[in-house]
Specification:
Two copies of one chain form a homodimer. Chain A is α/β, with parallel strands linked by helices and about 375 residues long. The first copy, chain A, contains 16 helices and 14 strands.
């Protein structure tokens, strides 16, 4: 339950990087029954900037989305996109990837920015280490992430009790508003790279700080799938079962089901939108690359028996033509289908969980789903 | 009245170049109350090709648009896009601009292609001469266009009476179907460049052939606006008042009203979709370039008092952000507004004509509308 509505779990969050889920309108998101979207703090901080979003009364109003929004802390993009990063105990100094302007984000500033965005769920600032990562660096980094989490939590608590004050350039008015009139939830992030003991220690330390929910970060950063699963398995037993648990930045449809089997409740992933722009559609049998010549005369929908509007109205052949001709409608249609596929997979998972048949469903789905490289002609 | 429905005039036809009005879905076109769309025969002939569209049962089914479609003859794009053109009395040989494949289009083949597309209104093949153009060339070309029109008409008549036969590579089955089970209308095209006497002669000769409607082609090809108006004025008196009259490929909102004042009923133009992709929106006061920094904090809709969904839901500031961030939703929103603007202008024109107040409306609109270069800060 968030200020802007209820989120049923397991939940998939379409990614609205720059204040828009790529190619899709808020109305289409509502029609897809998306219950929550993710906003990228780093991207929005860089462009259009906080002043603009504050002027419009927060991200919900700016993008005309009245459902729940989760914002990440910005950390992941600082580590993956920004230039000339300098990480200290205090925070991260960086140059943004758009105009190279210097900026500094600390745990406190990450909280202020997310408060200004007015998201329903904020994430504590963490350091996401790359893969592979040395044990010592991973250990020190995870400890710093815990100290940063503590500072984020302190900001949230101080705001709630009215004690917060700051000299930050971004000001704290919006932050106070977000936390008092509409209670912004705060999730902590577990790190620890691929090391079982570090994952456990990180999970315990973060849970000790008592957040509204817990995320597992630093997964799906290039490590083999087995390592990814082990990273989640190592942390999960230490996360309370009565709080939402969020596996960040993943994954393929089978990975999502495997994560649900391992106790995860929330997901975000760019795959359905990003692959759509490349002409790739998800089906229960695996992905289809609609650019392929074999689809030129194919009158079938992207996926037979799919209940989405796109599959009811358009053929593979037409969509292939649009993609080949670089017509925007092509990527729009595949994006709509792919988001429907992900959201529907979560609906199926919820109903199978309720009926106590989830494990069987997961096993059958995973067996039927062909990994991309192994896909044969449909 | 066409096979797929009634078209109220004056009518604006959104341009669906490659089987899609750029950025827009058929459902959005219906919601915009677009009554007819234009399909570009040349583009569809080159890609996906006739075999594909025939396989899907024609353009309506292929693109999932069940309203009327007008197809051009392909001539204009052959003259503006294709390479190595060779024009003879027989037809035009060219290399397409996509893969350079050689092709030949004659009046007969243009009719077959449009029959295969299954449009509600087909256009006779014409030669559209460039601006400026020598008098002698314009005269000879207009005469050839008349002979070509006669051949197009002969095909349509032969099909109607069941006498048509051809050895063309494209086959005539689709053509026969289009003309017998669903009567495809055929419009003739008046040419004559900027020469008053040639326009008159062309109009008379084309009207003598007795088409279902008449188009004025070779306008808005780079000539000054005054010349364009004169081209239409020179031809119009010779076009029957009880048949639709179509001014091809134009224009700005004031130009459309001026054309309506000069007796024109139908229009097609890429401006609302093309300018949208560049961040430019139409308003009754002129165009707005939403990329401009002045709109960053602007909470107003694109146009105040506009009844379109975009203006009810989104601010200039948000749309500016989307365009600057190169988000597809930005050009989608402006495209929707711009098409609404054009279609609504036609609705207003129809109602003013019915009330007998069109001239006053036109004068006021033209006076209020600032040409692009003269636009000041809104």
């Amino acid at each position: 339950m968030t200020t802007h509505g209820v989120v049923d779990t397991p939940a998939f969050m379409p990614v609205g990087t720059q204040g828009s889920v790529k190619g899709i309108s808020p109305r289409e998101l509502r029609e897809l029954n998306a219950q929550i979207v993710l906003g990228n703090t780093y991207h929005l901080f860089v462009r259009p900037g906080l002043d603009v979003i504050k002027h419009f009364g927060g991200l919900h109003r700016f993008m005309n989305w009245d459902g729940p929004i989760l914002t990440d802390s910005g950390g992941y993009q600082i580590f993956s996109l920004a230039k000339l990063r300098k990480i200290t105990e205090d925070g991260v100094e960086f140059q943004n990837h758009i105009d190279g302007a210097r900026a500094f984000i600390s745990p406190e500033i990450a909280m202020e920015i997310q408060a200004a965005l007015g998201s329903d769920i904020a994430m504590a600032l963490d350091e996401c280490v790359p893969y592979p990562c040395e044990y010592d660096y991973a250990a020190q980094s995870a400890e710093m992430t815990t100290r940063w989490a503590k500072r984020c939590k302190a900001v949230a608590s101080a705001v709630l009790s009215g004690e917060f004050s700051t000299r930050s350039p971004h000001g704290s008015d919006a932050l106070r508003t977000a936390h008092t009139t509409t209670r912004q939830l705060l999730f902590g992030v577990v790190q620890g790279a691929t090391f079982e003991d570090l994952r456990k220690q990180s999970a315990q330390a973060i849970v000790d700080l008592d957040f509204d929910g817990y995320a597992i970060g630093g997964v799906s950063v290039g490590e083999p799938e087995q390592e990814m699963m082990r990273g989640v398995e190592s942390a999960e037993p230490f996360l309370p079962r009565d709080k939402p648990r969020y596996a960040m930045g993943l994954g393929t449809p089978p990975q999502l089901l495997e994560m649900i089997a391992r106790g995860m409740d929330m997901f975000d992933c760019v795959l359905p939108t990003r692959l759509a722009r490349n002409g790739t559609a998800f089906t229960a049998r695996g992905t289809l690359n609609l650019k392929n010549a074999e689809f030129a005369l194919d009158k079938r929908p992207i996926e037979e028996n799919c209940s989405c509007d796109v599959c009811r109205e358009f053929s593979r052949g037409y969509i292939r033509h649009l993609i080949k001709a670089e017509e925007i409608l092509g990527l729009r249609l595949i994006t709509l289908h792919n988001l429907h596929f992900y959201l529907n997979l979560m609906r199926q998972a919820r109903s199978e969980i309720e009926r106590g048949t989830f494990d069987q469903f997961r096993r059958m789905f995973v067996a039927e789903y062909k990994p991309r490289d192994a896909m044969t002609v449909e």
